Amino acid sequence: MAKYIFITGGVVSGLGKGIAAASIGLILKSRGYKVVNQKFDPYLNIDPGTMNPYQHGEVFVTDDGAETDLDLGHYERFTDASLSQSSNTTAGRVYLAVLNKEREGGFHGGTVQVIPNITEEILRRMMLSTEETKADVIITEIGGTVGDIESLPFMEAIRQMKYKVGEENCCYIHLTLVPYMKKSQELKTKPTQHSVKELQELGIQPDIIMLRTEEPIDTATRERLASFCNVDTSHVIQNLTARSIYEVPLQMENEGLGNAVCETLSLKNTTPDLAEWQKMVDKFNNPKRKVTIALVGKYVELHDAYLSVAESLVHGGIHNEADVTIDWIGSETLPDDKAALARLKAADGIILPGGFGGRGIEGMVYAAKYARTHKVPYFGICLGMQIQVIEYARNVLGLKDANSSEMDKSTSDPVIDLMPDQNGKILGGTLRLGKYECKIKPGTLAEKAYGAKTIWERHRHRYEFNNAYRDELAKAGLIISGVNPERDLVEICEAPDHPWMVGVQFHPEFKSRPNRAGPLFREFIKAACDYSVKNKTQK
Question: In which residue ranges of the chain is pLDDT below 50?
């Protein structure tokens, strides 16, 4: 019988439920259990695919092409799992399924209600991962905070789960804020008390309380909260702000979270093996060099819009024992803003991540040209590869009007163009999504990075390298180093006579891990380290 862990949040949003859920997954995996994480979001969108990056942050893509919440990235990076369509469910998806069933006569003319119809659909989806993965433990994060109106059906569903699978197979973990009043030097427990009380009023008694705090929590405070919240003192877990998110599982294990979960679920509490993770954290905390990477993007005001890219750069740094500083440069500021230009020129490497729409494109083209002409390590991802191709077509091939038809529908040279099978389709869920094959050309930077002739990487895009210009660009020197064999689509481009300039149509950041950096991020950071040393030597 599978065990179920439910993680709720209280007081305020942004406490790090996703990191907590991922940490629990790693802690249980280190004890030999097969775990699967999933998230249920209360918003009515079908998925985050069409949501504004400034509002929602990054859209994380799974192997099977699901557009999901960014927390799934944390789950995969911590547990090294490959999640799926069933790993992220929104209220919109739940309601749509129920209403479609009603339209099809599935309820035989009966009244459709939140209880039981919506809650039953939620419960069905919560248990899908059990059927698909045969996992020992299913960890479910409930988005939002206790008290949100839109979250109530999900709270009712997890309340019912205990009676479906048995109390001994359910563990409720509540993450709350314990604010610190600096002036009086006091930790305040009332917000947690009220949050737990609200959860109890919904019929859910938490088994474990996690306390998000900036200051250590003393024994007396733990005991007071344990008494009020009806939990054992050993089940009051301090979640102290860490230097890095990758330290959180180690802190949680030291706090006794693994013991508390195993006790609640009657799981055999074997000795955890976190040695590899500890070694990775030690490397992160003790770098031997420093590099600065200029991330030139459209949404740099919200760093979460590029969360997996940023984390993958950190992974590359860990592998190379380098402290990676990301300089977030808005593409619209280039090249006119002198301060932004100076920051670009000071960087040891330049990365252009994905994005949609025409805003800031010319600034990206400038950054790509600067990287190519000044031999600065360059990594283009999705839109970043397309920008690399546009810049090369304009300034090497001489096609001055070269552009993407996404940015300029009237361009005479659409070196990047709409995929033929995307014409006339609606926006949501119609991108080229998920895992696709790529054949790598021997002797290229890509082959050196991957050490393989065939790779599989995840995609999220609609526009492609236009094969009508492929021969011209190749004759002008552009190296086509990776191709999808099924549709003959260009996947990887490299610049000739350059130490490291690689653009990829896919999103390698989705498969990078802190203890196993994505191959291209590993090599990009290595190239940046080499560039930094060379520059210092020359100076």
Answer: none
